[in-house]
Write a structure and sequence with these properties.
mainly alpha, five-stranded parallel sheet, 5 strands
Length: 607
């Protein structure tokens, strides 16, 4: 052990005891630290720290060391020695106090709990078999008793002899049956006790799994695995908090953040015209009885017409009807980012456990997995695991599965194996109903004839439709004018942008450049981490314009602005919409910037 140093005097007792036990095992190999590290493909420095007590090793290292000593010496350590080593290992982990050690300790405890659960299950099955055997034997005795009773009609000559034999046999059989009934009763009590122990073991496993997930998240935050939830918490103006649907947590109550569900999207609030009634009915059926009829459910349609609303609503209805089911909504681009972080931080096992233990998985915009070959392979195995376990899968895309050739034949065939439904742009009646619901929810002043006019002018998607209504009501509020059809004609003629259906990311970069020039900053400042007042204002206005003037998804817009999360973009959108109705300066800025982008875009695309 030439590379080992004496144990330090300031080591905790737990780490010292574990290091001494590991050294004792290591000495039995007769190898240097470097040679052993080379044999096991480990870093020699890490092995030295494990044996010097300065770092608690993973149990995998301890298990490998026990196997090597067993192979070297020809016999394994005693079970008592292994149990002592495991207790020392757990004590050292508990003393360490780091989030990583906490995760290791919980994983070790979860493995023990799983083992005890399996042992309890084995005992239950053995007792069930013994009970079934006893009941079978009792049934056989009952049959013999009935057969003996039937012999009472024997001839008179043999009646006395047969009767005595019958009485003796019946007495013996009744005695044996009584003993068997007592045995059955005892086995039943043992079975109930075993069931109780198994339920406790399973409950302990679930509790440890929840603790493990919390510990993994804390560890991820400590190690920088995930970025904080956005950089623009300050809003457009200092002192004005970003609004949310519930005045606080933007995801509402319970664990909606963990499941990724937005409480504003409900099946009851999805306005479906004649063309989309089948899609809504399929969503209701999947939410009420998951994995019974339509699995997977594939929803497709163009941008901003309600696919995301349907996915969130399915998740919310499932959670309301089946509180015990584990539900998770994730966008394809967020899924790709999470998979990449898991690969960098050796967290693929956590990634698989998180998604393969779900009861309902909802993946939005799956077409964005075109260049994610490793993730597509992982999603294929996750799909098979959930489908084989009768768990519900719901996916969405901007095109039907047969056109998603870039996803590969195997994954595409699985997408086509369930129900495919098309979400189409809302008809005139549905568009008016959508606007009426928006007016009621936000208490806007807009008469029915104005809603009819706006719905007739904007037909492409729901986001553009609601944006047009907000612009009309904001213009009327700022100018203290009544909302009527004439005003709507003026506002929509001047302000509703002509969307460019192609080269969307080029349009987003153009918006960033024009906004940066307008506020006297650089495009790098708008997309960077700076937090100055003018830069934050420019950044949030640029995010809003990207939502208004392009068909880019929210995650794609977030990636344009330095890889921020989707909640940051949604907060910026809500902030600017509210300020446009309150401040003339913001409204004028949006008007001028919209015209600038349209003019610059026209010159750019014509060339």
């Amino acid at each position: 052990m030439g590379s080992l140093v004496p144990l330090g005097g300031d080591l905790p007792d737990e780490s010292r005891a574990l290091a001494e036990a590991l050294r004792g095992l290591f000495e039995g190999l007769g190898l240097s630290v470097r040679r052993y590290a080379t044999r096991r493909h480990r870093d020699a420095g890490s092995v030295s720290r494990f044996l010097n007590g300065s770092r608690v090793p993973p149990w995998e290292f301890v298990s490998d060391l026990i196997s090597d000593v067993t192979e070297q010496q020809g016999q394994p350590p005693t079970q008592e020695a292994v149990d002592l080593l495991r207790r020392l290992y757990r004590a050292a982990l508990a003393e360490s106090g780091s989030a990583f050690s906490r995760v290791q300790l919980l994983e070790d405890q979860l493995a023990d709990a799983d083992r005890r659960s399996m042992e309890s299950t084995a005992v239950v099955r053995a007792l069930e078999r013994a009970l079934a055997d006893a009941q079978h034997r009792a049934a056989g005795l009952e049959l013999q008793i009935r057969q003996l009773h039937g012999r009472q009609n024997d001839s008179i000559a043999e009646k006395d002899k047969s009767l005595r034999l019958y009485e003796d046999q019946v007495t013996a059989l009744l005695r044996e049956r009584q003993n068997l009934l007592r045995e059955v009763e005892a086995l039943s009590e043992q079975l109930l006790d075993a069931h109780s122990r198994r339920a406790q073991a399973e409950q302990r496993c679930e509790e440890l799994e929840r603790q493990l997930l919390v510990a993994e998240e804390l560890w991820a935050e400590e190690s920088g695995e995930e970025e904080p939830g956005g950089d623009d918490h300050g809003g457009v103006d200092a002192g004005l908090p970003a609004p949310s649907a519930h005045g606080g947590d933007p995801f509402g109550h319970d664990d909606a953040r963990a499941s990724g569900l937005n409480p504003r999207y409900l099946l009851d609030t999805f306005v479906a015209g004649e063309a989309n009634r089948f899609a809504l009915s399929a969503a209701v059926a999947v939410a009420e009885v998951p994995a019974s009829l339509y699995n997977p459910l594939f929803v497709y349609g163009t941008s901003a017409i309600g696919k995301t609303h349907l996915l969130h609503a399915i998740g919310r209805r499932t959670r309301d009807l089946h509180p015990d089911k584990r539900v998770r909504y994730v966008g394809a681009e967020d899924l790709a980012g999470e998979f990449a972080r898991a690969g960098r931080d050796r967290g693929l096992d956590r990634f698989r456990r998180r998604y393969r233990s779900l009861d309902l998985l909802l993946i939005d915009d799956i077409q964005f997995l075109a260049d994610q070959e490793r993730l597509r392979e992982e999603l294929l195995h996750t799909f098979d695991a959930l489908h084989n376990a009768s768990k519900q899968i719901v996916l969405s895309s901007d095109r039907p599965p047969k056109q998603l050739t870039h996803l590969g034949d195997r994954l595409r065939n699985r997408l086509e194996s369930g129900l495919i439904t098309h979400v189409q742009p809302p008809d005139q009646r549905a568009r008016v109903a959508l606007l009426q619901r928006r007016v009621e929810r936000e208490q806007l002043a807009a008469p029915p004839e104005v809603l009819e006019y706006v719905a007739s002018q904007v037909q492409r998607n729901v986001r553009e439709l609601e944006g047009a209504l907000i612009r009309v009501t904001a213009f009327a509020s700022l100018n203290r004018q009544p909302v009527d059809v004439r005003l709507a004609e003026v506002v929509l003629r001047d302000l509703v942008p002509d969307r460019v259906p192609t080269r969307e990311e080029d349009v987003a970069r153009l918006i960033v450049a024009q906004t940066a020039d307008y506020f006297g900053v650089t495009a790098d400042d708008v997309c960077g981490k700076e937090r100055g007042r003018a830069i934050v204002t420019a950044r949030q206005i640029a995010m809003y314009l990207c939502r208004e003037l392009t068909d880019l998804s929210t995650p794609r817009i977030a990636s344009v602005f330095g890889g921020r999360d989707r909640e940051t973009v949604e907060r910026a959108d809500r902030k600017i919409r509210n300020l446009m109705a309150e401040r003339r300066s913001i409204y004028n800025q949006m008007t001028e910037l919209t015209l600038r982008v349209k003019d610059a875009g026209g010159l750019s695309f014509d060339s």
